[in-house]
Amino acid sequence: MMKTIKTLGLFVLLTIAGIGAMAQDIIVFSPGNFVRGTIQGTDYSSVVFVKDDESVVQYKASDIQEFVWNGATYVSKPVVVNKKTLHKFFKIIEYGPINLYSIGGNVLVDAPAPKKTRIIPSIGIGAGTGTFGSGVGVGAGITILGGRNQEPPVKKMMPATFFMEKPGTGRLMEMPVDGAGLAENNQRIKTVLLEQLGDDADLAEKIKATENFDSKLIIAFVTAYNEAHK
Predict the structure, then answer these.
(1) Is the Cα torsion angle 120, 157, 173, 203 positive or negative in sign?
(2) Rounded to whole angstroms, how far apart are CA atoms 44 and 131?
(3) CA gap 48, 155 in Å, rounded
(4) pLDDT band at 222 (very low <50, low <70, confident <90, very high)
(5) How confident is the model at residue 141 (pLDDT cuts 50, 70, 90)?
(6) What value does the mean pLDDT take over residues 8-34?
(7) Strand ranges (DSSP E) for the chain?
């Protein structure tokens, strides 16, 4: 009986360990080609990744297909910024007949705490006024880590923005989420929702009747559309 209990206990421990291993963050280069490790942060143009051997690398959005971070998937997509085509990471919010993505609104690049001194890339981002095509600057540098009395890195934030896409159209429609209660932003959100979801008469009437939008309401409209148009 005791031997059975010990065997069962070992099985449970191994199962838990296996779940923990599977819960790691993932970088996907192409279908079936991926690595596991720990993602430290992203500025939506690149991502800082700690491999299982504790080496730190920085991947550009143009180098990988997607990554999974804390259970959320971020896909790399080409966008035009100031007449230049760049690759950015977009967090998937909803996927279906209408795709909804987000950029910003969460903490960026949290530098790792290594056991030994090492040189790692660091990412900084500055967000000014304006939207995706203006007011955003990204700087990359090198940080040398080591010693016991290091100051923790300053964490940066950037405004949250939603992007809506109807697959096959090749267009990403931008909606400002931060400051959504402002009249100008509300009108922008309403215009995008009606353009993308307006072929559903019931939803179109509800969108037209809505005066103030926020992120939860936008997600609710897209979810309802996707459910009705599977």
Answers:
(1) positive
(2) 14
(3) 14
(4) very high
(5) very low
(6) 61
(7) 25-30, 33-42, 46-51, 56-60, 66-69, 72-81, 84-94, 99-103, 118-127, 136-145, 161-165, 173-176
- Can you name the residues that pair with 89 across neighbouring β-strands? 76
Q: What is the value of pTM for the model shown?
A: 0.68
Residue 98 CA, distance from chain mean position: 17
Unique residue bearing structure tokens 């290091």:
150
Which letter does DSSP use for residue 169 in this model?
S
- d(C-alpha 54, C-alpha 70), whole Å: 19
Residues sharing a CB contact under 8 Å with residue 169, sequence separation 6 or more, in sequence order: none
Task: Give the up-direction half-sphere exposure of residue 218: CA atoms within 13 A in the CB hemisphere.
Answer: 33
Q: Which residues contact 197 (CB under 8 A, 6 or more apart)?
A: 98, 203, 204, 207, 221, 222, 225
Please give the structure tokens belonging to residue 206: 């509800």
Angle made by CA atoms 155, 158, 160, in degrees to the nearest 5 = 135
